[in-house]
Amino acid sequence: MDFARTAVSLPSWLSLSQFRLAYKRLLLPVILIALLVAPITREVTVATLSDAFWAVSSYVAFTLAIYHYLSVFMNKQSRVVDLYQNSRGYQVMFASILGALPGCGGAIIVTTQYVSGRAGFGALVAVLTSTMGDAAFLLLASQPETGFVVIALGVVVGCLSGWVVNLVHKDDFLRPEIKKVAPQVCQHKEGAKSSLETNAINLQGAFWKWLLVPATIVAVLGSFQVDVNELLQLPATSIKWTGALLSVTCMLLWALTQEIKDYESTVSEDAKCVSSHPIQKAAQDTNFVSAWVIVAFLAFELTTFFGQLDLANLFNGWGIWMPLMGLAVGMLPGCGPQILVTSLYISGAVPLSAQLSNAIANDGDALFPAIALAPKAALVATIYTALPALLVGYGYYYLFEI
Description:
It comes from Vibrio paucivorans. The protein has 20 helices and no strands.
């Protein structure tokens, strides 16, 4: 038997060298499916994946679609573009406003622009300071007046923080040297990409093309505490299971879009064609961010589940330590812990001082791509956001809560 010929016939996703799995990202959807199948983890996994899709992925996709459509305008010369690109002060202001938008899409945009060299370090600190992530939706839905005040305060503190950082650091402070890859054309050369990768990339675009509007509508209704199942007269867990299955589908498509050769290719986004449709670009960015969000959500929820942690009782009655608690949780990546703090505030378990320090220290899901692509900058920026969070949290505590 000719073993060499037998080896050549192996699937493309298996490397011929030591039978190395070329698409290591496939481990993520495989693990997700295993958690869904296992009875002990099924309920918490379904809830977590559903939250990740409706509360994060849908908003990120919608925001990034708008961004990629606007990028056509941003690439043209205009007064607004000149202010953003050439004025460090206005760049910080624009970044703070983008970060204050509910959800993490605006913060993710500025984070990726910093890594690519289109925004400075001051803008990165400003957007991470002003963003409240997905917790903003919960606060706006439950206490709109307080929500708008917290968001406005985030913009002001974000601007001040970014301007101070601009006085201390240059725009390229801690920016990593990203390997420049020649822009791809959409007509792939033979052998450049496998048919499997090409099909997966195209399916990502088709997936979000058809789901972008309905997914955003469901996400907005859910954020404002509308029971979509009851509204559409569906079984009680329909939307939850739909979100979980759509999350797994996103991860499966994402896992097949890039052959993994090293750590950088594992954690980085896939290269996009310069002439790709805005929805296609938004789809690739969204699935990349969603992968990090899902991993973080599951790590947090499964730890809480198996550790039998009652966080409401754990944080209740800490008195003077409450703003510090809000700050500590705010420095954790992702929106899950921040939504928890906001839920505790709404229920009366924690005071507004803890909510304020958490809102300013909270970097949301934008921290995941920052950690993946510029870990040193992400660490320093997170520390910088902690300083104004301490000032605001304890300032409110001593002025109004003692």
